[in-house]
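Reminder to self: tokens first, then the designed residues, so the page reads top to bottom the way the pipeline ran.
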């Protein structure tokens, strides 16, 4: 082969390689575009034939808010958790229906059922939360253990109630004179187990025993056989007869008895 022929063949081979490379690049670009378009369809609305997650959440949210408002007075908030992104349910041909599963609570963490009545029936449970707000008594300043609580040391604030499983008070006048059973930091919600009633009678105290009705009362002297707080039942001894009887603490040094 002559030198001219060799050069001509080499040019043809290089041109063919260039064409093959361009063709592969075009095909690769088209494939990338197809993938991008496919991903765009996945990220957008629910795939054709499947129920949208938004419709399920909105149905549960609306239902839970209505149930919470009917069950509680005052301020309430209802929220629904997120659905698993992999969830696929057939698109419902009728309006979705929501319901409360057996044992579901109407405060704190709960669940809501959503179902499709047909023609393709399905049912799903979604998590939810109901936050109930109300007035509660908190310490406005630190309280020491054994300290008698004054009304000025308390205030009423709004708090979320579902987490207050140990109870709470909604008025300060019920707590005046109670004793702090432990140190209570400022801002703490006051619960019944934090306080104790003041002791009005000690064992061995001389007390006044009351008996009779509102119109006619008999008073006598007695001796307390045990300690007592307001409303507590204790044993006392009538000094005139040395008889031991039971009565209820009315106030400091006073016990109501039935003879």
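Designed residues (259 positions):
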């Amino acid at each position: 082969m002559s030198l001219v022929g060799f050069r001509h063949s080499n040019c043809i081979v290089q041109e063919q390689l260039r064409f093959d490379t361009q063709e592969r690049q075009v095909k690769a670009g088209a494939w990338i575009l197809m993938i991008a378009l496919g991903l765009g369809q996945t990220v957008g609305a629910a795939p054709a034939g499947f129920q949208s997650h938004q419709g399920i959440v909105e149905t549960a949210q609306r239902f839970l808010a209505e149930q919470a408002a009917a069950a509680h007075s005052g301020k309430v908030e209802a929220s629904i958790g997120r659905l698993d992104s992999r969830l696929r349910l057939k698109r419902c041909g009728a309006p979705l229906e929501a319901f409360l599963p057996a044992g579901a609570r109407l405060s704190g963490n709960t669940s809501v059922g959503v179902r499709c009545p047909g023609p393709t029936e399905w049912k799903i449970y979604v998590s939810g939360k109901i936050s109930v707000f109300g007035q509660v008594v908190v310490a406005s300043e630190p309280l020491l253990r054994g300290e008698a609580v004054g009304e000025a040391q308390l205030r009423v604030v709004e708090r979320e109630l579902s987490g207050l499983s140990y109870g709470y008070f909604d008025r300060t006048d019920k707590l005046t004179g109670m004793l702090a059973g432990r140190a209570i930091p400022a801002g703490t919600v006051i619960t019944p187990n934090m306080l104790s009633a003041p002791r009005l009678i000690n064992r061995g105290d001389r007390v006044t025993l009351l008996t009779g009705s509102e119109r006619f009362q008999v008073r006598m002297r007695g001796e307390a056989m045990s300690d007592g707080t307001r409303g507590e039942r204790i044993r006392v001894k009538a000094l005139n007869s040395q008889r031991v009887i039971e009565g209820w603490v009315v106030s400091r040094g006073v016990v109501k008895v039935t003879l």
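Residues 1-14, 26-44 have pLDDT under 50 and may be disordered.
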